[in-house]
Every structure is written in C-alpha cells, then in structure tokens.
Amino acid sequence: MKQELFEQHHRPQWEAFARQLDALERTRRRQRDPVTGFAESYRELCHHLALAQERRYSPHLIDYLNQLALRGHQQLYQSHHNVWHYMVQFILLEFPLACRREWRFIAVSAVLFFGSLLIMAAATYHHPSLVFSVYPDTAVEDFTRMYDPASKALQDEKRDAGDDFTMFGFYIKNNIGIGFQTFASGFLLGLGALFNLLFNGIAIGAVMGYLTERGFGVTFYPFVIGHGAFELTGIAIAGAAGLKLGYGLLSPGRLSRKQSLINAAREAMPLVYGMFFLLLLAAFVEAFWSSSSRLPDLVKYLAGSGFWLLVLAYLGSGARRGSG
Amino acid sequence: MLDTYRKLETPENIDLDIQVAGPVVRIMAFTIDSLIRLGVQIALLMLMTLLGKFGMGVFLISTFVLEWFYPVLFEVLNRGQTPGKRAMGVAVVNDDSTPVGWTASIVRNFLRIVDFLPLGYLTGLVSMTVNKDFKRIGDLAAGTLVVYRDRPAPAAPWPESVSSPPPVALSLPQQRALLAFVERRNQLTLARQQELANHLQPVLQKQGDEAVNYLYRVATWLRGGR
User: Which of A145-149, A260-264, B58-62 is predicted with the least confidence, judged by mean pLDDT?
Assistant: First the structure.
C-alpha cells in the first residue's frame, strides 16, 4: 500500500487517538471526559506504526506515529493508586514488615549509633573535658545555660507558642534533612551513612554525659525522653537505609552491579518513608510536648517511657505478622 | 558514534524511538529550576518575616520542602517535568519509558547530594559523560532516564507536483531517503537542495533546479500520488 492511501485511510483514527491522549494528559482529573476504548486504539496505532516502519514510509509519518505511540505507552503503563489509602496501609503494615525484612541492617545501624552514643556518654561522664573536643566552647556554654536548672525556669517563661512553632520548623528542616542525607550518602559504599551514625551518636552522647556529670540531668532527661523515642530510632533506621544502599553497590551477588543498586534503593525506600514518618513525629513532640513547662516531670517520664515502648512494639510488630 | 536515539521494545512488540537528553540541556533545565526555587524562597522569606515567629516556622518548613521535594513533586505530579525541564522540552521517565513514580523520583533526587560531590555536581557530570544514556548517579540508582519530549513539527504540506515513476528500481532505504528529502525541503536552502540533487546526476541526467523538481515528482509517485 502506498503511503498516501495509508494516511488517507487511517488519519482520522490517529487524530481521534491524539484527542484521547490530550484528554488523558490533562492534569485535572475532574475536568476530564471519560475515555473509552483507549487500549484498542493504542493497539491499533502500534500496528500502524509497525506497518509504517516495515514499509519504510517517510520519516515524518513514522515520527508522528512514534510520538503518539510513546504517549500512549506512558498513559497505558502508568500506575494509579490512591496516595492516602497507600499511606495508611504503609504505616500500619508495610513499614513494620520492611523493618523485619531489613532487620540485619537495622541491627548493625542501631549497634553503631546507640553504641557510639553510650560509649561517648560514659567517657564524657568520667572525663567531662572530652565535650570540648566535640563542640566549640560557645556551643558548650549555650547548652550548659539552656539546661541549667537555675536559669531554666526563667527561659521557660519567655518561651511562647510562636517559639514552639519556629522550633518545629527548625527540627523538620534540620533533623529530617540529616535523615535523608544519611540515607543518600550511604551510596558511598555505606561510608556516608556510617559517618553520620557515628557522628550523631558521638555528638549526642557527649552532651548527655557532660550534662549528667554537671548534675543537669533533672532538666535534660525529662526534655529528651519523649521525642528521643521517635528521633533516635528514626536516625538508626535512616542509617540502616543508607547501609543497605551501600551494601547493594558493594556486594551485588549474582546480579549486575547496576541492577543490584536499583534493587537496593527500591528496597531501602520503605525505611526512608518510615524514617520520615518517625522524624516528623519527633519534631512535633519535641516542639510542642518536650518543651512544655506546664507538664510535671513525672508525666514526661511516664509518657516518654510509654512512647519508647510504643515505638519498639510498633517496629517489632512486623516480626509477629511475619512469623504468624 | 554519538547517537542519542534508543530503541525501546514495548509489550506490544514494537520498537519505539526515544531520545535521551545530554548534560548541556539538563544543566540549563537545572539552572532554571534553581532560579525559580531561589525566587520562591526570597518571596517567602519576605512574606513570612511579616508574620513573626509563626512565619519563621512556616518558612523553615517550606525551605525543607523546596530543598528535598521540589523536583519530586513536579516529576510525579506533572508528568516527569519540573518547570525547568518543561522549558527545555525534556522529562524524566523510568528506564522502560513509563511515567516515574514516587519511589524512583525520590531516589534520583535525594542522591543529588552524591552527584554534587566534591563540588558543583562534578560526580554527576562525570557519571553522565561516561554513561551511554547520560545518567547521573541518581538516575543509575533509580533506574530513570531524562528524555526529550518534543512534539514533532507538523510536516510541511506536500508540494503540488505531478508524479513520475523513478528512472531505476529503488531499494526501500533509497525510497525513504527521497521522501525525507522532500519533507525536509523547508529546512534546506535552495542551493543546498540543488547540491544534493546534483549528486544523482549520473542517474537522473539532470542538473540544478530541474533535478530538484524531478526528485519531487519521483517522491510524489513513491508516496502514492497519481
């Protein structure tokens, strides 16, 4: 069949298909008219493209059909799912399951992070001057003043709801940013994640040991126990995601290195989403609960311990489901 | 050979042509996006300082969102295109040319911090130049491609011409070359058209304008005109 005849026969079909594509590509779904018979028209168009290629019709025609087929391919093979529904399902089910599946990386990450934190805390408790090797003098002065029981009451009085919200924004930007960095820098053979875990462990441990030794634990622990449940576990999980990424690149097994990296990234993502969720909760609790001066310390200790149990039971809930 | 076209075999058993985008056009798209982001941040900062401490919190949160999710939100919700990519006519797709989803988009954009190392996206640039699909590290880990999404210009109307059969039997690629010659005539100067047509002098026994018109006639015949 000559090209001209072929075009005459089928052009109305192609134009109709292009209109269907235009309708489907419109971003606002509500303005869309329902489209029927899309898959059939797409198959028909693929057939025409194959014919045009086989018969060496002119490049313009083939480009035109190729472009339509590409757009059709994009429409046909996209995934539609309801984000909100997926979010609930993820939080209730898939994140704990992912934690069970990746428990080895989480275990390694947790040992590195909590290990370095506790060792540094113990070391600083016995040799308080160690804190100056981690922080500059001015920073040490700042947090000493912040947690000094003598001046704490005065500061609490000055703090208002606006400050709480500013700090909420700060915790989100800073802490969740660190979480994401920990994951992504894991690409560097896991070294980035390793560095972030140890660095944060040592930094937190040094403050903890130093303030405890100074006898400021009475103001420090009630403050940190609540959000610590979400934040510290969040950091450990971010580290696990980063280590997994690096391990995928380092040890591809029987896959190609590229495919192994792609798989590792995809499998690490549930941990990243979960870590995002935990750190978001941590920011909220830290800004609005931990900082509250109206709550008695006893309430904070009880609730904080409750948070820890809740988080650990939640993260462990995948194991029950997995084995049951 | 520097060929940026890739064949993609679909489940319908046809080969689609896709064209991957190179570093220059991607750097330009990135620059546009950076400027937009900067502009939005400055505007937000001015607006939010009016709102005091509460505004400061909103500003910090919006900085966080812009920093990590600006490309992700656009790529997932706007068919693979940030405003910069849209301006340059390119889009992000999965390796199999399906639309990019949340997970792939987040991986490719979070790994920007690796591409950035040691400074100024050097790692990403090196990765792009040694990789045949111009993938930076983020693209490698996410399994994504940046491709051109141009709408082809509508073909110039076929010239009014009588048809005459070709003087010799033509193979399929030769027929195709003739058709392409006529379709591209508006992008070629008259002198260049004549120069090309003159190569066929041994076959056509014609020169210059006459040869060009003769080629039009043959192509019209090939296309099916009477």
Answer: A145-149
Measure the CA–CA gap between A107 and A99, rounded to whole angstroms: 10
ipTM: 0.83
Domain limits of chain A? 3-76, 83-323
DSSP-based three-state secondary structure for B8: strand
Q: Residue A245: list chain B partners with CB under 8 A.
A: 141
Residue extents of the structural domains in chain B: 5-148, 172-221
Q: The tokens 């040992």 sit on which residue?
A: A111
What are the pLDDT digits (tens) for A77-110?
877 767 788 888 889 889 999 999 999 999 999 9
| Inter-chain residue contact B183 with A188, CB threshold 8 Å | no
Looking at beta carbons, which residues of chain A come within 8 Å of B151? 67
C-alpha triplet B106, B31, B5: angle, nearest 5° = 70
Among candidate residues B133, B215, B128, the one with its CA nearest the CA of residue B167: B215
Which uninterrupted H or E stretch holds B20? Answer: none
pLDDT at position B107 over 50: yes
With contacts defined as CB-CB under 8 Å, which chain B residues touch A185? 113-114
For residue A190, the chain B residues in CB contact (below 8 A) are none
Q: Which residues pair with B8 in a beta bridge?
A: B16
Torsion of CA B189, B191, B192, B195, to 10 degrees: 160
Flag if A59 and B101 touch (Cβ within 8 Å).
no
Concatenating the DSSP letter of every residue in A158-197 gives H--HHHHHHHHHHHIIIIIHHHHHHHHHTTTTTHHHHHHH
CA distance A97 to A198: 26
Partner residue facing A66 (CB), from B17, B140, B141: B17
Tokens describing residue A62? 């083939």
Condensed to tens digits (0 to 9), the pLDDT of residues B48-74 reads 888 888 888 899 999 999 999 999 999
Q: What is the per-residue pLDDT across A285-297, written as a single tens digit (0 to 9) for each?
A: 998 888 887 888 8
Nearest by CB to B183, which of A58, A163, A176? A58
Give the chain B residue whose CA is nearest to the CA of A80: B101
**Averaged pLDDT, B187-210:** 83
Q: What is the pLDDT of residue A324?
A: 43
Q: Name residues whose C-beta falls within 8 Å of residue B172's C-beta, 6 or more positions apart in sequence.
A: A55, A56
Q: What is the chain A residue with the closest CA to B223?
A: A3
Partners of B113 on chain A (C-beta within 8 Å) are 181, 184-185
